[in-house]
Write a structure and sequence with these properties.
4-stranded mixed beta sheet; single chain; alpha+beta; 129 residues
């Protein structure tokens, strides 16, 4: 468990690099916001969570795997993760924030990410002179 990172994962870094390359500037892991979003765009009041498919139980082949060792411990833990995610998104929405969840499996098809980010964040900011 100690080796499982919650910050700066490969999928998160891929999304961060892409957003920066597209001209967006952001803040990371804002602990004052519910759920501690991975990437936050304060001026736009938008937040992005980059979730691992297994840990957050996505409906894809990666997330459909169930632990075979000690399922009495792991299955409730994974279910709590899903509940906690929904609560965090609801709280952020109540605070006036828009939320996007990008799944680990989506980062494996990098051609899909730019249109997804662009549609969520709007057009990139104009370059400064």
């Amino acid at each position: 468990m100690r080796r499982i990172r919650k910050k700066n994962t490969k999928p998160e870094m891929a999304v961060r690099r892409l957003a920066h390359r597209m001209g967006y500037r952001y803040r990371l892991h804002r602990r004052d916001l519910p759920g501690t979003p991975d990437i936050v765009f304060p001026r736009l009041r938008k937040a992005i969570f980059v979730h691992g498919c297994f840990w957050h139980q996505h409906a894809c082949p990666l997330g459909a795997k169930k632990p075979s060792a000690n399922p009495d411990y792991w299955l409730p833990k994974l279910a709590r993760n899903v509940e906690r995610d929904a609560e965090a998104r609801a709280k952020l929405a109540a605070m006036g924030w828009e939320v996007l969840v990008i799944w680990e499996c989506e980062t494996r098809a990098p051609a899909r990410l730019p249109p997804l980010l662009k549609s969520f964040l709007g057009s990139p900011p104009a370059a400064r002179s």
